[in-house]
Design a protein that fits this description.
The complex is a heterodimer. By secondary structure, chain A is α/β, with parallel strands linked by helices. Chain A contains 6 helices and 9 strands; from the N terminus they run E-H-E-H-E-E-E-E-H-E-H-E-H-E-H. Chain A is 30% helix and 21% strand. In chain A, helix 1 crosses helix 2 and helix 4 runs parallel beside helix 5. Chain B has 11 helices and 10 strands. In chain B, helix 1 runs parallel beside helix 3 and helix 3 crosses helix 4. The longest helix of chain B is centred in the N-terminal third of the chain and has 20 residues. The radius of gyration of chain B is 19 Å and the shape is globular. Classes of the chains: A alpha/beta, B alpha/beta.
C-alpha cells in the first residue's frame, strides 16, 4: 500500500441529484486544485452543457469546461462530458477522447466508460467518486478503479437525493470512503495537496 | 511486467497480426475506444485473453469478419444532432440546388440510419431526384444492413423527435413502413443510393463530389490517419464542394485549415477552397 502518492486525476460520475452535489464539491475546491477533474453526468441527449458550465462556474474558482476530443487534460480544470458522447481518457498521451459507441447501461455518456478508461490510463494515481443518481451506471467502473489501485469514494447514500447509484457502487465491491459531499471535498484536498486555498 | 503492460503487448501483437494478415491497420485507431470494443468482443465470445484470439484471427478469415463487424458497428442514429441538419438545410442545400446533378459521398455510413436521414432532407428540399449518393463503409455486413434499411421500432420515437427538431417538414412515419418490431425504410429513399465497400484506412479518392458526409468516424482515428483521410476527401470534392463532419470532431488539423474554409464552426461544415 502506498503511504503517499501523487494523484493525477479525479473522475466523477453522477445522475439525478448530482448537480447539487457537484456544485457543493466545486465550491470547496480551489482554482489551483492540482489535479484535473473529469465528470460524466447523465443529461438528455439534446441538452447543452453551457447552462451547466455557468451554474458550476459561479460556485468555485475551478475552471469548468466541456470536454473536447483530443483535449490535453490539465490541472485546475473540471471537464464535463458533452451530451450524447462517451468520454474516455486516452492512455499514454493523457488526452480526452469522445466516441459515439452504443449506450452503456442505457447511458451515453456512460460513467463506466469514463471510469474504466481512466483506470486503465492512470492506474493507482486515480480517485473515483460516485455521486447521487438513479441507475447502476458507474458501479463496475468504480470497481475497475479499485482493482487498478486507485481510491474510490461514494457519496453517503443517506445524503444523496437519489441513493441508488451510490448504493449500487457499494454493492459492487469494497469502496474506500463513504462520505457526505463536503467531506469528499476535504478528503480531496488532503489527498491532492499543493493547490492554494480558495 | 504487470497485467496492464502484458495486456498492452497482447493488443499490439493482435493489431500487428491483423495488419499483416488482412491489411486493416488499427494502430491508427483511438486506443481507448479500440480497447473498449475489443473487451466487449472478448466478453461476447467468452474469450479470456486477448492473445487467445490471435490464432483464430490469423487462420480463419471468418473469425476476422465477425471481429470486424463487432468492432466497427457504431450504432448510428437518424438525425443525430438535429441542429446540424437545420444548418445543412439553410447553408448547404441552396448551393447544392444550383447544380444540375449532385454527387454525395456518405463515408462510413455504418448501418445507414444517417444516409436515410440525409435522403429525407433531400426529398423535402426537392433535390433528391438530381442526387446520386454513394454510401460506403469498410464492413460488408453493416453495408448489407444499411441497404436493407430495417431498424428496430423502439428507436423510432427518438428519431421522430430528432426529425422534428431537425426541421422536418412532414411526419417521419411517411418514410417507413411499420412491421411489428421493425420498420423498413421506403424503397423510394433508396432509389438514388449506391452502397459500396470503401475503406477509409487506405482506399483512394472517390470521384468529384458536391458534398461529403463523414460524421463521427474520424473521431476514432489518430491524427495521422485523420490527415490522410482529409486528403482523400479534399481530392474527392469538386471545387467549392462541402464537407460535413461530426459535431464534436476536432478540427485543429492542418489539412483542414489548408484545403477548406469554415461554413459553420459549431456544426462542423466546411467548404473546399
Amino acid at each position: 500500500m502506498h503511504k503517499w502518492r501523487k494523484f493525477e486525476a479525479v473522475v466523477i460520475g453522477g445522475s439525478s441529484g448530482a448537480i447539487d452535489a457537484i456544485r457543493t464539491l466545486v465550491s470547496h475546491l480551489p482554482g489551483e486544485f492540482p489535479v484535473p477533474v473529469i465528470c460524466v453526468l447523465h443529461l438528455h441527449p439534446h441538452s447543452q452543457n453551457e447552462s451547466m458550465i455557468q451554474l458550476l462556474s459561479g460556485h468555485g474558482s475551478l475552471k469548468v469546461l466541456e470536454a473536447e476530443h483530443r483535449m490535453q487534460i490539465k490541472a485546475g480544470r473540471m471537464y464535463l462530458a458533452p451530451p450524447n458522447y462517451h468520454l474516455l481518457v486516452e492512455p499514454g498521451e493523457l488526452t480526452l477522447s469522445l466516441n459515439v459507441d452504443e449506450k452503456v447501461n442505457m447511458s451515453r455518456p456512460s460513467i463506466d466508460v469514463l471510469f474504466e478508461s481512466a483506470a486503465d490510463a492512470y492506474g493507482d494515481r486515480l480517485i473515483g467518486i460516485m455521486l447521487s443518481g438513479a441507475s447502476h451506471d458507474g458501479a463496475a467502473g468504480l470497481q475497475r478503479i479499485k482493482e487498478q489501485g486507485g481510491i474510490t469514494i461514494v457519496q453517503d447514500p443517506e445524503t444523496a437525493q437519489a441513493p441508488i447509484m451510490p448504493k449500487a457502487a457499494m454493492v459492487a465491491g469494497r469502496v474506500d470512503f463513504v462520505l457526505p459531499v463536503a467531506e469528499i471535498a476535504e478528503l480531496l484536498l488532503l489527498k491532492c495537496p499543493g493547490g492554494k486555498k480558495a | 511486467m504487470n497485467n496492464k503492460e502484458l495486456e498492452q503487448v497482447e493488443i499490439e501483437v493482435l493489431i500487428d497480426s491483423i495488419r499483416r494478415r488482412y491489411g486493416f491497420d488499427f494502430s491508427n485507431y483511438s486506443q481507448a475506444s479500440f480497447k473498449r470494443r475489443l473487451q466487449h468482443y472478448l466478453k461476447l465470445k467468452n474469450i479470456n485473453r486477448i492473445s487467445d484470439l490471435i490464432p483464430a484471427m490469423l487462420h480463419d478469415p471468418a473469425t476476422f469478419k465477425t471481429f470486424l463487424f463487432n468492432l466497427s458497428i457504431p450504432v448510428t442514429e437518424m438525425f443525430r444532432d438535429p441542429q446540424a441538419f437545420q444548418v445543412v438545410r439553410q447553408k448547404v442545400v441552396p448551393m447544392l440546388s444550383t447544380y444540375p446533378s449532385i454527387k454525395i459521398w456518405h463515408a462510413g455510413c455504418a448501418s445507414g440510419e444517417e444516409v436515410y436521414a440525409l435522403a429525407i432532407v433531400l426529398v423535402e428540399e426537392g433535390l433528391y431526384d438530381r442526387c446520386q449518393i454513394y454510401a460506403t463503409d469498410f464492413n460488408d455486413q453493416v453495408l448489407k444492413m444499411a441497404e436493407e434499411g430495417i431498424y428496430p421500432t423502439e428507436r423510432i420515437k427518438e428519431y421522430t423527435l430528432n426529425y422534428q427538431k431537425a426541421g422536418g417538414k412532414r411526419s417521419l412515419s411517411d418514410y417507413y413502413l411499420s412491421r411489428y418490431e421493425a420498420v423498413i425504410m421506403n424503397s423510394a429513399l433508396r432509389k438514388r443510393i449506391v452502397f459500396a465497400n470503401h475503406n477509409l484506412m487506405g482506399d483512394a479518392s472517390f470521384g468529384e463530389m458536391q458534398l461529403i458526409v463523414c460524421r463521427n468516424v474520424l473521431i476514432y482515428f489518430n491524427q495521422s490517419l485523420k490527415e490522410e483521410v482529409l486528403q482523400v476527401f479534399a481530392e474527392s470534392l469538386a471545387p467549392r464542394g462541402y464537407l460535413w463532419l461530426g459535431t464534436k470532431e476536432d478540427v485543429g488539423l492542418p489539412g483542414l485549415r489548408n484545403e477548406f474554409k469554415t461554413i459553420d464552426s459549431r456544426q462542423k461544415i466546411f467548404q473546399k477552397k
